[in-house]
Amino acid sequence: MSDENHENKVYNILITKGNDPDNQYGFYKERIDSQKNFLYNEYNTLDNDLTDELFKEIDVIILLFGLYHNNQETFNELIKKSNEFNIPLLLVRFFGMEFILKELEEKSDAVVGWNPHCIVNAIETLVNGEDWVKPCDIEEEY
Protein backbone atom coordinates (compact mmCIF):
# COMPACT_ATOMS: atom_id res chain seq x y z
CA MET A 1 0.00 0.00 0.00
CA SER A 2 2.57 2.51 -0.99
CA ASP A 3 0.56 4.63 -3.39
CA GLU A 4 0.39 8.38 -2.91
CA ASN A 5 -2.79 8.22 -0.82
CA HIS A 6 -1.09 6.13 1.87
CA GLU A 7 2.30 7.83 1.86
CA ASN A 8 0.96 10.99 3.51
CA LYS A 9 -1.78 9.42 5.63
CA VAL A 10 -1.56 10.02 9.37
CA TYR A 11 -3.47 7.27 11.19
CA ASN A 12 -5.35 7.92 14.42
CA ILE A 13 -4.77 4.84 16.55
CA LEU A 14 -6.32 3.94 19.90
CA ILE A 15 -4.32 1.30 21.74
CA THR A 16 -4.87 -0.61 24.94
CA LYS A 17 -2.73 0.55 27.81
CA GLY A 18 -3.19 -0.35 31.45
CA ASN A 19 -2.10 -3.02 33.90
CA ASP A 20 0.82 -4.42 31.86
CA PRO A 21 3.26 -6.56 33.89
CA ASP A 22 5.04 -7.83 30.74
CA ASN A 23 5.46 -4.36 29.16
CA GLN A 24 3.55 -5.38 26.05
CA TYR A 25 2.71 -1.72 25.42
CA GLY A 26 6.37 -0.65 25.49
CA PHE A 27 7.35 -3.47 23.18
CA TYR A 28 4.53 -2.55 20.80
CA LYS A 29 5.69 1.10 20.78
CA GLU A 30 9.24 0.04 19.88
CA ARG A 31 7.94 -2.09 17.03
CA ILE A 32 5.59 0.42 15.47
CA ASP A 33 8.01 3.32 15.94
CA SER A 34 10.62 1.35 13.98
CA GLN A 35 8.49 1.83 10.86
CA LYS A 36 9.83 5.18 9.68
CA ASN A 37 7.33 5.70 6.86
CA PHE A 38 4.30 5.06 9.07
CA LEU A 39 2.78 8.24 10.49
CA TYR A 40 0.31 8.09 13.35
CA ASN A 41 -1.27 9.89 16.25
CA GLU A 42 -1.58 7.65 19.27
CA TYR A 43 -4.35 7.70 21.78
CA ASN A 44 -4.49 5.13 24.54
CA THR A 45 -6.85 3.84 27.17
CA LEU A 46 -4.85 5.12 30.12
CA ASP A 47 -3.89 8.67 29.14
CA ASN A 48 -6.90 9.77 27.08
CA ASP A 49 -10.55 10.41 27.89
CA LEU A 50 -12.51 7.86 25.87
CA THR A 51 -15.24 10.21 24.69
CA ASP A 52 -17.54 9.77 21.73
CA GLU A 53 -15.71 12.66 20.08
CA LEU A 54 -12.44 10.75 20.33
CA PHE A 55 -13.96 7.59 18.87
CA LYS A 56 -15.25 9.60 15.90
CA GLU A 57 -11.60 10.44 15.06
CA ILE A 58 -10.10 6.97 15.53
CA ASP A 59 -9.10 4.96 12.43
CA VAL A 60 -8.31 1.66 14.18
CA ILE A 61 -8.40 0.22 17.69
CA ILE A 62 -5.44 -1.97 18.63
CA LEU A 63 -5.95 -4.59 21.31
CA LEU A 64 -2.75 -5.99 22.82
CA PHE A 65 -3.76 -9.52 23.82
CA GLY A 66 -1.06 -9.59 26.52
CA LEU A 67 -3.06 -6.99 28.43
CA TYR A 68 -6.40 -8.77 28.18
CA HIS A 69 -6.52 -10.70 31.46
CA ASN A 70 -5.67 -7.64 33.58
CA ASN A 71 -7.83 -5.21 31.59
CA GLN A 72 -10.93 -7.14 30.51
CA GLU A 73 -13.34 -4.32 31.26
CA THR A 74 -11.35 -1.97 29.02
CA PHE A 75 -11.25 -4.56 26.22
CA ASN A 76 -15.01 -5.08 26.45
CA GLU A 77 -15.60 -1.33 26.28
CA LEU A 78 -13.33 -0.99 23.23
CA ILE A 79 -15.09 -3.84 21.45
CA LYS A 80 -18.43 -2.18 22.17
CA LYS A 81 -17.17 1.20 20.86
CA SER A 82 -15.65 -0.48 17.81
CA ASN A 83 -19.09 -1.79 16.89
CA GLU A 84 -20.86 1.45 17.77
CA PHE A 85 -18.54 3.66 15.70
CA ASN A 86 -17.65 1.09 13.01
CA ILE A 87 -13.93 1.18 13.85
CA PRO A 88 -11.83 -1.82 12.82
CA LEU A 89 -10.25 -3.89 15.61
CA LEU A 90 -6.68 -5.18 15.29
CA LEU A 91 -5.66 -7.84 17.81
CA VAL A 92 -1.91 -8.23 18.42
CA ARG A 93 -0.98 -11.60 19.92
CA PHE A 94 1.00 -11.88 23.15
CA PHE A 95 4.71 -11.67 22.30
CA GLY A 96 6.17 -15.11 21.66
CA MET A 97 2.85 -16.95 21.74
CA GLU A 98 0.44 -18.02 19.04
CA PHE A 99 -2.48 -18.60 21.44
CA ILE A 100 -5.32 -16.09 21.58
CA LEU A 101 -8.84 -16.43 22.89
CA LYS A 102 -11.25 -17.52 20.17
CA GLU A 103 -13.86 -15.02 21.42
CA LEU A 104 -11.44 -12.11 20.86
CA GLU A 105 -10.30 -13.44 17.50
CA GLU A 106 -13.92 -13.63 16.32
CA LYS A 107 -14.56 -10.02 17.34
CA SER A 108 -11.38 -8.72 15.67
CA ASP A 109 -11.05 -7.66 12.06
CA ALA A 110 -7.41 -8.83 11.95
CA VAL A 111 -4.97 -10.72 14.14
CA VAL A 112 -1.19 -10.33 13.85
CA GLY A 113 1.96 -11.09 15.78
CA TRP A 114 4.82 -8.73 16.54
CA ASN A 115 6.33 -8.23 13.10
CA PRO A 116 6.24 -4.41 12.77
CA HIS A 117 5.62 -4.58 9.02
CA CYS A 118 2.61 -6.85 9.63
CA ILE A 119 1.15 -4.52 12.24
CA VAL A 120 1.44 -1.54 9.90
CA ASN A 121 0.17 -3.51 6.91
CA ALA A 122 -2.87 -4.65 8.90
CA ILE A 123 -3.63 -1.08 10.02
CA GLU A 124 -3.37 0.25 6.46
CA THR A 125 -5.49 -2.61 5.10
CA LEU A 126 -8.25 -2.21 7.69
CA VAL A 127 -8.38 1.59 7.44
CA ASN A 128 -8.56 1.27 3.65
CA GLY A 129 -11.73 -0.80 4.14
CA GLU A 130 -10.23 -4.04 2.88
CA ASP A 131 -10.62 -7.41 4.55
CA TRP A 132 -7.55 -8.76 6.29
CA VAL A 133 -7.04 -12.19 4.76
CA LYS A 134 -3.39 -13.04 5.30
CA PRO A 135 -1.45 -13.74 8.47
CA CYS A 136 1.77 -12.21 7.14
CA ASP A 137 3.93 -13.22 10.08
CA ILE A 138 3.24 -16.90 10.61
CA GLU A 139 6.72 -18.08 9.63
CA GLU A 140 8.71 -15.07 10.77
CA GLU A 141 10.67 -15.19 14.02
CA TYR A 142 11.94 -12.06 15.81
Question: Could you list some keywords that capture this structure?
Answer:
5-stranded parallel beta sheet, Rossmann fold, alpha/beta, 142 residues
Structure description:
The structure is a single chain. This protein is α/β, with parallel strands linked by helices and 142 residues long. The chain has one domain (4-127): Rossmann fold. The chain is built from six helices and five strands, in the order αβαβαβαβαβα. It has a five-stranded parallel beta sheet with strand order 2-1-3-4-5, sandwiched between helices. Helix 4 (72-85) links the parallel strand 3 (60-64) and strand 4.
Total number of strands: 5
Please state the CA-atom Rg, rounded to the nearest Å.
14 Å
Structural class: alpha/beta
CATH structural fold name: Rossmann fold
Gap between N and C termini: 23 Å
Element order: H for helix, E for strand: HEHEHEHEHEH
Query: Helicity level, as a percent range?
Result: 25-40%
Number of domains: 1
Strand content: 15-25%
